[in-house]
Structure prediction request, 525 residues.
Amino acid sequence: MQSYDVAADGLRGLNATLQAQKQETNQTRWEVVNPKGSHAIAVGLDAPIDVTVKGSTGYYCAGMNKQATVRVEGSVGPGVAENMMSGTVIVDGDASQYAGATGHGGLLVIKGNASSRCGISMKGIDIVVHGNIGHMSAFMAQAGNLVVCGDAGDALGDSLYEAKLFVRGSVKSLGADCIEKEMRPEHLETLGDLLSRAGSDARAEDFRRYGSARELYNFDIDNAAAY
Amino acid sequence: MCGIVGLFLKDKSLEPKLGELLSAMLITMTDRGPDSAGIAIYGDAVDGQTKLTVQSDNAAKDFASLSKDLSEAIGASVSLQANDTHAVILLDGPKAGAARQALAELRPEIRVMSDGDAIEIYKEVGLPKDVTERFNLAGMRGSHGIGHTRMATESAVTTEGAHPFSTGADQCLVHNGSLSNHNVLRRKLMREGVQIGSMNDTEVGAAYLTWKMQNGASLGEALESSLEDLDGFFTFVVGTKDGFGVVRDPIACKPAVMAETEQYVAFGSEYRALVDLPGIDNARVWEPEPATVYFWSH
Prediction:
């Protein structure tokens, strides 16, 4: 296990060190101490390494992640795992706004709650939130799965494309063009797999599925007067 | 951008350290607001006495014989404690109105930063570290305080444009965000006879709250109605004589983190601002909900 002290050795050095790890590195396990809410911790990683952050972080933790597993033993600020490509990011505490925004792939797990705009414009990432999510989550979400074991806030899935949304608790309101959809066997299978990978004991059968009504995909001539 | 910090002490034994804790929090927020900084600190109130905190760009000249001149003008004793460009004037509570009037005639260049039993507001242009040092904020004691670091967007970088803004006796407001309907609202409030000194958007927000409260609203009600009447982005933190409140607009783009322990309730624009508080590792840390008014008081 390698250890890096952000307070003593600086943030720039941390990211340079982690980003320098190659595909075949022997230093596969890292521990980051004294994060003290710093921004951009463990960003841009591209190697199959395991990084544990011992404490809470600020903006953009684990952004643009590829391959790596990043676990935060605390809460994270805005934009955790933003634009993640692959790998896994696990947050033991809560996440602030736009968690997993624009993510293309990989798995983001938030053990606590996520606030507003969780999964905004997601493009293939899977996000599992053990708690609740805030308003405008999955806004313009294009692909991937957003799983919420708790409740969802206002305007869930507004202007949604083809991402799939699964919520176990209540949904305060659905956004424009987002509707409840039938839960078919293939959805239960996907959901069950995501829940088990995210360490949740929730039952897939207890969730409802939401998706795009696909009414905003094409211009509707009846709306011409509105323009 | 802009940074906000706030600290409300439940544990009296921390009161001598309030200034030190709050100054450190403020300096951590420098990269959210390097243009100007300010702090409202609620210290020991003296029974029957009111504090006016005043500011002058020519402090040496303006403060020189001010306590004597003011005392003669209002016919009551006045004491003055100068602190760099600011001074705290202590006088009999009932004389506060007369003193403000006399002050405007005696020293028209002087700005009143705050008035009230406990509040003192210090704010100037410059880096938060320099501002805290010039007033020795770290040496101040108190029961609670709020601070602000400004990155100017809506108006010039000046002392008047710095936060906190006074919203009435023992009340103040700091703001992260920008109000988009402040010009319309300023005209409306000025028609109602409300004095607004600058082109700053937050001053309009402060004047709005003052006006609402003058018309009978409680601070909580005024904050609730701000959610309807103010357009734009805001995280507001307000200070009152015995506590502080937090409200975020319904979109809640502007960040906010809160922490609570047995000893205190703390607010920061970012968690970074809170990391050196005692016992933070075991604090309950959460993000305040949008369009929800929070209050803590003694």
Remarks:
- Chain B has two domains: 3-44+127-297, 45-117.
- Residues 3-44+127-297 of chain B form a domain with the Glutamine Phosphoribosylpyrophosphate, subunit 1, domain 1 fold (CATH 3.60.20.10).
- The interface with chain A takes residues 250-253, 255, 257, 270-275, 281, 285-287, 289-290 of chain B (CB under 8 Å).
